[in-house]
Amino acid sequence: MPAMVVAVGLHKYFGNFHALDEVSLEIQHGEVLCIIGPSGSGKSTLLRCINQLERIDSGAVWIDDELVGFRQEGDKLYELNDAEIARQRLSSGMVFQRFNLFAHMTVLENIIEGPVIVQKRAKSAVIPEALALLERVGLKDKQHAYPSELSGGQQQRIAIARALAMKPKLMLFDEPTSALDPELVSEVLAVMRDLANSGMTMIVVTHELGFAREVAHRVVFMDQGRIIETGPPQQVLNNP
Ligand code: ADP
Ligand code: ADP
């Protein structure tokens, strides 16, 4: 089986600033990869390039054997337009540092919004799935609450459920616990650990080294836009 994500020779500039410098990476199906490194080293930019929130300047990314940003017809490649990129982006679910829930929608409405409005699936099919996801993140009793009534940890668990409702092939996490009060971090990490155990392919940018040590199959250390080291957690986390 080909890798879930293949990134080859990625470069990204912001003006003259070289944010990604020849980054190559493969993530297998079901693999959990943690990306660590100092602030500003390009971790977030790498995630954003993988799911096309940022354009890469050179290099290429394949997700599940599909070349990102292009459509192939015969032996010709066509660049995707914005709407097509948005559709392709649905193959990965992304969870950000800030929860990004819709404030005017209930928890349940937040979760079904993507499948119903974007994927145009029937509400009657989506609602039972959404309730099952809420159960999975331990928040079924909050289905009618609004985000402002929830703690940061609860909101982030809802954000994970909302991403999963779109049935992504992989999940990208960009410092999902960095904005949380310390006592709320573990409930979010527990949901992520369950997800990892269920076989989801995950790329997690995090400062939670305990999580990386226990859950990651592989850890990537980035500095100044480059991958400095890749290996099992015991190896990478013991050579800081
Ligand atoms: P990390 O996630 O490792 O903290 P980022 O990928 O967020 O690092 O950022 C890498 C560098 O690129 C930082 O110096 C940041 O300021 C810069 N950067 C990120 N996004 C932009 C942007 N849209 N425009 C200009 N500079 C950016
Ligand atoms: P993160 O929490 O991922 O490190 P940042 O604070 O670095 O987030 O960036 C938040 C947003 O601002 C991102 O969309 C990033 O691309 C953008 N950004 C970061 N640095 C710069 C910059 N120097 N100039 C313009 N945009 C930036």
From TrEMBL:
Domain ABC transporter: 5-240
MF terms in GO: ABC-type amino acid transporter activity; ATP binding; ATP hydrolysis activity
CDD domains recorded: ABC_HisP_GlnQ
Record bears the keyword Nucleotidyltransferase: no
Keywords: ATP-binding, Nucleotide-binding, Transport
A Pfam family that the UniProt record links to this protein: ABC_tran
Keyword Disulfide bond applies: no
PROSITE patterns: ABC_TRANSPORTER_1 (PS00211), ABC_TRANSPORTER_2 (PS50893)
InterPro entries membership: AAA+_ATPase (IPR003593), ABC_ATPase_HisP-typ (IPR030679), ABC_transporter-like_ATP-bd (IPR003439), ABC_transporter-like_CS (IPR017871), MetN_ABC_transporter-like (IPR050086), P-loop_NTPase (IPR027417)
UniProt family annotation: Belongs to the ABC transporter superfamily.
Name of this chain's protein: Ectoine/hydroxyectoine ABC transporter ATP-binding protein EhuA
Source organism of this protein record: Phyllobacterium sophorae
